């Protein structure tokens, strides 16, 4: 099965077109104001108008409550929620019940973490997938750091690989981890929040090469 691709942190219409043309499966919109890739509701509505059918719109939220997320969803046609903060399994369930959306949880791979136990707890709470990202003591994703891919669990549950991925390492990353999907942001940028069409195309070529092995 080919590896799915989400391109996250898109802020410009031309980057939507570049991602779609290159074959991305999902577009990530960041609803977290401290992020340099954040969009407000009005920006997100405009971007969503350029995302065609069969490409998922993923809304990234960090420690937002259910009501706050629901208000965004009233105006932006988000398909899937990416909960990227310190949300507990119970909080994720509450958000899902309030919004009626599928969701997945982003977890940072810390040196001493029992990732299988953490993944299982969110899986049992209704997650559609779990995203594994590099750990940083202060930042919530988008760090450009990568973790030890040998710690990537092998499971039938959909796992998404993130953290420090770019065109030059994505083929190896997929070969080593065999993820359900990969998530890239800074690795296809010329500046924070500004995607580069050539880097997106090279990244997608690397995904195809890794998936073919």
UniProtKB/TrEMBL annotation:
Record keywords: Amino-acid biosynthesis, Aromatic amino acid biosynthesis, Isomerase, Tryptophan biosynthesis
Pfam family, one: PRAI
All copies of domain N-(5'phosphoribosyl) anthranilate isomerase (PRAI), residue ranges: 5-205
GO BP term (any one): L-tryptophan biosynthetic process
EC number: 5.3.1.24
Xref: InterPro entries: Aldolase_TIM (IPR013785), PRAI_dom (IPR001240), RibuloseP-bd_barrel (IPR011060), TrpF_fam (IPR044643)
Record-linked SUPFAM superfamilies: Ribulose-phoshate binding barrel
Catalytic reaction(s) noted: N-(5-phospho-beta-D-ribosyl)anthranilate = 1-(2-carboxyphenylamino)-1-deoxy-D-ribulose 5-phosphate
UniProt-listed CDD domains: PRAI (cd00405)
Keyword Repressor carried by entry: no
GO molecular function term, any single one: phosphoribosylanthranilate isomerase activity
Listed pathway(s): Amino-acid biosynthesis; L-tryptophan biosynthesis; L-tryptophan from chorismate: step 3/5
Signal peptide: none
Family (UniProt): Belongs to the TrpF family.
Official protein name in the record: N-(5'-phosphoribosyl)anthranilate isomerase
Organism: Acinetobacter rudis
Species lineage: Bacteria, Pseudomonadati, Pseudomonadota, Gammaproteobacteria, Moraxellales
């Amino acid at each position: 099965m080919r590896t799915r691709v989400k391109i996250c942190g898109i802020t410009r219409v031309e980057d939507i077109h570049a991602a779609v043309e290159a074959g991305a499966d999902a577009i990530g919109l960041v609803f977290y104001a401290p992020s340099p890739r954040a969009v407000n509701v009005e920006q997100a509505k405009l971007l969503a108008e350029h995302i065609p059918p069969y490409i998922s719109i993923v809304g990234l939220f960090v420690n937002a409550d259910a009501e706050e997320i629901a208000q965004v969803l009233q105006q932006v046609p988000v398909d899937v929620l990416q909960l990227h903060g310190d949300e507990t399994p119970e909080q994720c369930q509450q958000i899902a019940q309030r919004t009626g959306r599928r969701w997945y949880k982003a977890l940072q791979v810390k040196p001493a973490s029992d990732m299988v136990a953490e993944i299982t707890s969110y899986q049992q709470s209704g997650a559609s997938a779990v995203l594994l990202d590099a750990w940083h003591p202060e930042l919530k994703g988008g760090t450009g750091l990568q973790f030890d891919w040998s710690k990537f669990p092998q499971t039938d549950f959909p796992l998404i690989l993130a953290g420090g991925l770019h065109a030059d390492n994505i083929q190896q990353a997929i070969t080593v981890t065999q993820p359900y999907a990969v998530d890239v942001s800074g690795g296809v940028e010329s500046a924070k929040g500004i995607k580069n069409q050539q880097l997106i195309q090279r990244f997608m070529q690397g995904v195809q090469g890794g998936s073919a092995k």
